[in-house]
Amino acid sequence: MKNTISTLLKQKQSGDRITMLTAYDSTTAAIMDECGVNAILVGDSLGMVMLGYENTLPVTMEDMIHHTAAVSRGARNAFIVADMPFMSYQTDVRDAVINAGRLVKEGGANAVKLEGGSEVCEQIQSIVNASIPVVAHLGLTPQSVNAFGGFRVQGRSLDKARKLINDALEIQEAGACAVVLEGIPSKLAEIITQKLAIPTIGIGAGSGCDGQVLVYQDMLGLTAGHTPKFVKCFADAGALIRKGILEYISETKSGAFPSEEHTYSAEEDVISQLMKECG
Ligand code: KIV
Description:
Layout: H1 5-14, E1 18-22, H2 26-35, E2 39-42, H3 46-49, H4 61-74, E3 79-83, H5 93-105, E4 111-115, H6 121-129, E5 134-139, H7 145-148, H8 158-174, E6 178-182, H9 186-195, E7 200-203, E8 211-214, H10 216-219, H11 237-254, H12 268-278
Helix pairs in contact: 2-4, 5-6, 6-8, 8-9
């Protein structure tokens, strides 16, 4: 059964936690879909984990459409959310609607996600008016890395926590169908979750959210270097991939690969004729 905004809302109401993972390609999306993940986020985190940038800021609409279309071809049942990249919606409402439309029309997304609170409510309202569901994103919003002065937990002071609660209420009022809460204290995420009628999906926001999202390279041990505290490695796929590549190198060098099992043959008489012709 296809997951929709109604499925996610019903999950919040019944206390059935929402599962969301990022994916950027068709193969991974198909595996996640088969496993029954509720939603796939084509995050602009692809800038880092797929394209090797330092942060999400260089990601373009073309990048997002390309990867969203690949994910849409791989997943049948998961609700597909595509990130709106930096400067594709902050500039004005018209840009926001046009770019959200492209992610749905050319990428096959079921919803778009954009970062920010009260300052993007007009954009949320207009995109929703164009019949495109919007997932909001509050807290440690990576597109604001320069404004934050780094990737830091948000909402730790009373003022900032109050602002986040207010932003959450405003984005809900503007028509958002769900909100990602990233990098905020778990108690604050719990308060927001209780105050909102729409589902909250947490990343680094504790277990009191209506669901969780993780970047798949992080949760499968594929990310090199430092991973944040909130990341749990559920399977060390990185070790498995390294083992496979090392075995391939070793067997190719020794000649053990390819063996008979992985080799094509031709009829004996064809081969003997060829041998005669070629000496
Ligand atoms: O881009 C992304 O992967 C995200 C998640 C971290 C929520 O926005």
